[in-house]
Amino acid sequence: MSEAVERVLDVVTETAPEIRAGLSGRREYETAENPSGDQMLAADVHADELLEERLLSVDAVAEYASEEREGTVESEGGHLHVACDPLDGSSNLKSNNVMGTIVAIYDEPLPAPGEALVGAAYVLYGPITNMVAAVDGAVTESVVHSEDGGAERHVVDEDVTLPADPVVYGFGGRVPDWPADFEAFVREIEQDLKLRYGGAMIGDVSQVLEYGGIFAYPALQSAPNGKLRLQFEGNPIGYIVECAGGRSSNGEESLLAVEPTELHQRVPVHVGNTGLIERLEGALAE
Ligand code: AHM
Ligand code: MG
Question: Which CATH architecture has domain 3-157?
């Protein structure tokens, strides 16, 4: 791994316990909406501000962008362009369910294609705080230990790989809003898989990496590009799942091949075992 990418992951590791510690007093909504029109919690804003400050202080980081702010923030020098979802699944904060932080590290200015990723990671604030990071084609899982005044990653799995036999599925959006071809696909795969959906992409993808299966936030009749955002969610999660031996798709092709047109563009997201994603693409093409 390049030293610069490692430094970015170290900074995210060091910031994660602070983000987590700041959650409990920040469950109320802000008056402003984020650029995608979502209501922001005080916790979203706090996580965004921490990551902006910490990441831009890394010499190699030239640009910071997040789901919670309209434009990008640049610093002098550096060659890495970092896009974050500071608190993915933050609507889970009120009900005290899992959330995460997602970081996408590109070597091209934003908005960048997934093919320009040089690393991607997520932190999951679950019963324990862990980080799953994809760099140089390999995925590692680490537990984040916070110590006095800092935090460290302890690797627990050096080669995260999707199990060959898929077990779980979880799909976002209201069922009556799913396109008919997507619903028909779901009716087929639910014969063999078990439904588990938690409402935070990071938690839902984490169980796919662990047990095998498929997660999607598909195109909806009311929202043909779905809900999730390419720069901050689709690309990094597609990269992680592909590096773990699975596939990602917008319904037609890999998320990493989708051409970026704007910073906050949305994209239908489907990730999981290769066989399931191929079946999905077949079902949507009929
Ligand atoms: P967020 O990044 O603003 O929290 O929104 C993204 C989240 C994803 O984590 C999750 O997959 C999806 O929204 C859940 O949406 P819904 O509440 O419609 O099921
Ligand atoms: Mg999100």
Answer: 2-Layer Sandwich (3.30)
